[in-house]
Amino acid sequence: MSLVVRKMDETSAHRFNQVNRKFEVTSKVILDMTHGKLTWAVTPVAPYEKEIPIEDIDPATFINSEDKVIFLAEVEGKLAGQIKLITWWNGYAYIDDLIVNPQFRGHGVGKALMEAAMQWSREKRFPGIMLETQDDNVAACKLYESCGFVLGGFDQYTLKNFKRNETALYWYLIF
User: Fold this and answer.
1) Eight-class DSSP state of 146
2) Beta-carbon contacts of residue 112 (< 8 Å; ≥ 6 apart)
3) Which among 21, 55, 65, 153 has the fewest CB atoms less than 10 Å away?
């Protein structure tokens, strides 16, 4: 499997958001706070399908930008995934979107995209990276933890307006 991750440019911008955003939820994160440390475990749930909505943005604004970037991953010329980073209000790099096409999940594509994000963030001298995911995206939580991120917080109410029974989880990697 020939995996290539590169920064999106004028020739590849048309491929942005051409990733299948559906996944099956079979478990959820259960949080616990012990002695001031936030920990998590996994519990099974009745399976259901979830689709991450597409944000309507102009990918051209990310090309040659100093404070935001999109990386695309390809396997044998096929789009395998994407990651979008922006500068957050607190000075951190913020992973605003990470999606891997279903046929490439579990093959290192997400890890390769995370490595590109970490390298870009270090080169830009960010103090670290942060992101938000939900408690029903266990695979993402495992990926972030394997990349050295720590679970720094949660919010039970931020997603209630969307009528979803989900908890937002905030992950951090401090350089």
Assistant:
1) H
2) 3, 5, 73
3) 55
Cα-to-chain-centroid distance, residue 121 = 14
Pairing of strands 168-174, 128-134: antiparallel
Nearest to 133, CA basis, from 172, 105, 75 = 172
Q: How far apart are CA 162 and CA 48, in angstroms?
A: 17
The residue ranges of every structural domain in the chain are 3-174
How many angstroms separate the CA atoms of 84 and 69, rounded? 6
pLDDT digits (tens, 9 = 90+) for 71-97: 999 999 999 999 999 999 999 999 999
Whether residue 143 contacts residue 173, with contact meaning beta carbons closer than 8 Å, is answered with: no
